[in-house]
Amino acid sequence: LWGFVGGVPMVNQRQGNGDIPATSPESDAMAKALKKLGFTFVGSTICYAFMQAVGMVNDHLVTCPCHAECQ
Questions:
Q1: How far, in Å, CA of 48 to CA of 44, rounded?
Q2: CA distance 32 to 15
Q3: Which helix (H) or strand (E) holds 11?
Q4: CA 34, CA 36: separation in Å to the nearest integer?
Q5: Could you give the dihedral angle defined by the CA atoms of residues 21, 64, 10 and 31, in that order, rounded to the nearest 10 degrees?
Q6: Tens of pLDDT, residues 19-67
Q7: At residue 12, does pLDDT exceed 90?
Q8: Which one in 3, 4, 37, 62 has a CA-CA gap of 20 to 30 Å to 55?
Q9: Inter-residue contact 28 to 11 (CB < 8 Å)
Q10: What residue spans of the chain are helical by DSSP H?
């Protein structure tokens, strides 16, 4: 799964909650690949949330103390 982000976490520079998307091109590709493998309850939004949860994407706001910790 890390291949969808090139093996390294994507660190975004989010300024506000409105800047955080529900999907990305990477999560679109992940969802498509998983569906091709037979997964049925999977979509781009679920994949993006998974990527955030496991640290593949750092969407902490730049004002959040966790943003620097997660780099």
A1: 6
A2: 29
A3: strand 10-11
A4: 5
A5: -40
A6: 888 999 999 999 999 999 999 999 999 999 999 999 999 888 888 777 7
A7: no
A8: 37
A9: no
A10: 25-36, 44-53, 65-69
State residue 30's pLDDT score: 97
The pLDDT value recorded for residue 26 is 96
Beta bridge partners, 58, equal 11
Token pair 């590709």 is at which residue?
A: 29
Q: pTM (2 decimals)?
A: 0.87
What the block records as the tokens of 47 is 């994949």
Q: CB-based contacts of 43: which residues, under 8 Å, 6+ apart?
A: 31
